[in-house]
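REVIEWER CHECKLIST
Item 1: Sequence provided? yes
Item 2: Single chain? yes
Item 3: Sequence as submitted:
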Amino acid sequence: MAARVLLRAVWAALPGPARGYAKKPAMKSKGKNVPKEGLKGPEVCTDPTMLATYAMGVNYFKEGPEVALKPDSEYPDWLFKIHLGPPKKLEELDPDSIEYWRRVRKYDTWHRNRLKKGKKL
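Item 4: Structure as written out by the authors:
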């Protein structure tokens, strides 16, 4: 009985648990209502002449001029044939094309995933 009381006194005197997780580093707070400083994005150019003559945001160097746009004759023809609108529907695609069969495979995968999701074990 005396040993149990002695052990309780020793455990109570210890500063904390012998085993446990590491302490989290103390963070200094600036105050309750101070907004957090977040990452700021690049500056957006709104000058119409600059937007019409330069490719803004294409230059990946920190310093240096923006990339100037060339006349249309300098670029390849396939560049102007790229479809930029919403993706074509399956009915609009040619069944002999590779894009058609890729879309069929994608739709089939979506369908199988939806069926699997509803199954109960």
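Item 5: Key structural point noted by reviewer: Residues 98-118 form the longest helix (21 residues).
Item 6: Recommendation: ____
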